[in-house]
Records
---
Amino acid sequence: MINISEICIGNILHPNGNDETLVATVRAVEENKISFYEYAAANPAQAAPVALSEIWLKGYSFLYDANSGAWSKGSMHLQPLGEGGYRFSLGAHSQILSFVHQLQNVFFSLFNEHIQVEIAEDVEAPEVQLAADSIMVNYLPKDRSVRAFSFSLTVEGASYQVQYEKDAQGYWAFSSHRPI
């Protein structure tokens, strides 16, 4: 179960805590309901936080420093903790972050803007999916009977065609990508 008081519009969550392959972007938050752009609404007991991991840090353009063992972006630093999660620090501010929505909320509170996914030139499949998932809401078909859609994504001169399909529950899921 997720703490509804931590959730903001734009946060990335698992809309169904039983399926951690699905991620969705929060569209609206009510007392007993979280609405998503990509998926049906869920009550807070159904939704689950997305664990903060290297794939998300890479997607948000944090760089890993092997000497310190920490991730950094500008003057922000995330030091991995043995028990999971990261110690976020920026100047005198420090706190433990375990989930993507926590990083998103800290970034927004510090800089008054949403943290954006960026992709480096040596794009791997997880990074393509991360970038596509962050913008796919702009390409959702208006016709609810459509079972699949695709769009192209260009990052630093490399273009990809990404495909989404509806799963058995009717949720949009990333299915494939290919260079174009």
---
Amino acid sequence: MKRFFLAGVLWLLAMPFAAAAVRLPHILSDGAVLEQSSDVRLWGWSDRPGKRLTVAASWGERGSVVIADDGSWQVVIRTPEASFDRHSIVFDDGRRTELADILIGEVWLCSGQSNMEMPVGGFWGCPVEGAAEALLAPDNDALRYFKVPRAAAMSPADDTAGGEWQRAAGASVGGWSAVGYFFGEILQRKLGVPVGIVDSSWGGTPIESWIGLDRQRRFDDYDLAAEGISERPAEERWVRAASLYDGMIYPLRNYAIRGVAWYQGCSNTGRPTTYADKLATMIGCWRDTFGREMPFYYVEIAPYDYGGGEAPGSYPGSGALLREQQQRVMSMAEHTGMVSTNDLVYDWERDQIHPRRKREVAERLALWALSDYGIEGLPTLGPVFDRAEREGSLMRVYYKNADDRLSLDGAIRGFEICGADRVFHAAEAAREGFDSSTILVWSDEVEEPVAVRYCFRNFLQGNVRSNYGLPALPFRSDDF
């Protein structure tokens, strides 16, 4: 009896030491996908400062480091080319910790506000087209997903607030970001390698929450001081500048990712004129944070009745102005590309800020991403306004990136024209010849036109497309 009692005491005494093994960040957990053919950083914490920690990967790579005085450590190892082999990684500081079921492939970060966060299962009253097909798709162990929990931090955090890697299996994908799921599924199928999607998104959040605080000091249209924010409930602290960068991006900084897909902007329609500068600033901030010049592809906000600017002849709405800013970023930051969504909203979705056609958004993001992998000949952007010239009572609109051909569905929609009074009127339009990349625009209300616009309102849809079905970008020829 004494022997059993003594054994029990010894087992209890040993428990704290067993539990104090190497601690890893949440994103370094079983089932993770690591970026292929890369020097990846593995990191964590130990309660044995000064001791040597070793790392051994099942594909043969080894590394070691002396644990810092604060218990932190970091080791860089090389990953092999992508495969469907399941790997493991062992960490040992005198106590062994093992990660299992690790895949090597491609990793993309998906971020933004609610239209990125919107799950395959949809929001209340906001379904996603193709949700049932996604749930019925064959299980795909090579497609994995990590959801970063919402966390608004007051200073840069070392780890996410939780999270675990999931596999694309059955109903589990119902909770995944719809854009993230469809985007990852397309990449996995086309590239033929494992793909990991890291989703760090939060609905209703402004871009200022996602930019490091030190990068925002030159902007004066947002309260950086944020007095009283620390007293707010945690779920409201996202209003502080940098709070989501600190809590949901900075903790991922050591994780190797290939690129970023970004869908945000609706919460900045009240401050549209600084958006291009802020998005370009955020892109630079994130690239510096991750230490990689990663490609950055983003989604234009969809048509929606934001209020104001909708009556004929009125000033354009804030949504139109923000889209204009989004387009500018492609010329401000290298290795960026925009997905236009002007055609991805149904007429009856004027009051729906969460349009349901998320697969098409993901397809267009995937065109940009796959072009980054060297797949040639993929279309990435629809027709882009070049210039407008007056011809009598007409305006001729010249497009570039149209391959000398525009695709139209019936009568051309979406154009407006104005004279010297700057009052815009709905216009008729026609293409000259099948192979023409120009469009003639006119209105019986305007005898001497001075400017032309296309879909330059909060909610105005057109039907000018490329032969691949990519929509012409909204534009205005004026600067009124």
---
Amino acid sequence: MSSSSDLVNQAKVAYQEVPAAPRRHTAVVTCFDARVDPWRILEAGPGDVQVFRNAGGIVTEDVIRSLVISNHKFGVTGVNLIMHTDCGMIGLDQSAVEAELGRLPFDLGGFDDLTTELRRGGERLRSEPLLHLSGGVATYIYDLRDGGLRRQSA
């Protein structure tokens, strides 16, 4: 898409009415990396799942806030946390970024080990007292080399 008018026209063509509550009663937390397409990975269509994306697919306070709303207002009962190989957040050094930009008013959330961060995020979701997830929390690593989605143990 090269212009705003192209985006507006495409939105009109792609529009279809879908319910506010996801049909699968599931939310997905994942990275905003353009190589990660959660709808394709999960074979989901419009209205099937709610998707929350940020740099790294990190379970932040805003992710928790959004999931509390999803859980209590839209009937979401399960969460799939999907992180991926070759993530730009692996090894991201906050101090190096701050040396270039100056002190940041927030934590960038870089991490050293994908599996450790995935486990931390899953534990954070499972232990949140405001979430009532009868469908549970599943954690996955999406492999960008072969397209494999591999479930990780808690």
---
Amino acid sequence: MYTLNNQVVPRTNVFAKAKGAKENTARDRIIVAIWIYFLLVLFDGALRKWFLPSLSGPLVLLRDPLALWILVTAWRQGYLEFNQYSVSVVIIGFLAIYTAFFVGHGDLLVAVYGSRIFLLHIPMIFVIARVLNQHDILKIGRWTVIISIPMTMLIITQFYSPQTAWINKSVGGEAGGGFSGAMNFFRPPGTFSFTNGTSLFFNLAGCFVIYFWFHVKQIERYLLVAGSIAILLAIPFSISRTLLFQLVLSLLFAFIAILLNPKYTGGLILIIAAVFGTFLVLSFTPYFTTATAAFTSRFESANATEGGINGVFMDRFLGGLIQAIMLSSDQPFFGNGVGMGTNVGSMLLTGGRQFLIAEGEWGRIIGEIGPIFGLAIVFLRFKLAIKMLVMSLNKARHGVVLPWILSSVGALSITHAGWAQPTSLGFCVITTGLVLASLNNHSDYDDHAIA
């Protein structure tokens, strides 16, 4: 006991408050770092192609030291979760460096670059899950909706601009940042280094837009309406079938949530009214109809090439996995070496960008680290995705729909995201972390405004 302002105060209470304040300060620093990580996922492509093109190569590693700092700080403060997923990928990551150097391609730098995915970024998922609370998740959601508005304006400008325009520069400042589309229009990359970033971003934004229509008091109405319009515009202007499929899947998840909780029927009515009303208005604008025609042309030609919807599903969703498993016995026992299947790895090993192992994610992983380690990663990723879906569905049964709606993107992200591509890896980390964080928070996400 001691006196403070002539009052007797137990020392343990003061020490406890000081400790709590210190922990809150550390947590706040980690949250700020997670925000920076998220913003770098969104805008490091802009740095690499518009503002610092001469440093486009080194900027690929911009998130790595930040991820290391987050992990070290989280470990010191007790926020680093050691579970079967994080421990397994870290062990495989270290073993992959060893096998790559001694029995694989033999380049230590390439091996370390490839293993940083297992050692730094995937463990970050579980730090995000431990650190973020309900307020943090909804704040990220609100800002994602806000950013979707200028992002849509950007891709529309890129859509109508020639590939020689400054706004369509690729990484390194080269012309032609767009990717093949239809009707002489190119798929716009937005602020990202490649066009996949556009669909990945709007997938996540679409989840939050759908959720906020269920909880309209948690966001300003004008932002929700503007964000909804931005998402709908992004579908044709992105010329991305993946974006359309993913948004339809998210709406399907929302419909299932309504079946489990009829109280959300009003939210579904609002979503349907917003979609049809927006499409009705936009259908009278020539810019929108031109983009829709390009999207439809791309959709039909690509589906015909890939054998229709069934061919698309088998090739993109199951085909790569099945083929990788069937051919896994043909790979070296310890693989060709981690990092060899990445663009950076191919540049360091051969001096040019090419797929040295496989273009698909599963073929790349198994080809890099071998059938034993590779299939272990496949198993862990699918096990985590299934666990997320089961837990989020249970939450939805009890009226908490945010984890379930986010899982429509998160489950596919953790199973099918291409970890070798930095933007895809970044969205996988953020999206999966948000799903797990929303599951760890037991609040019912009652309607309240977020700052």
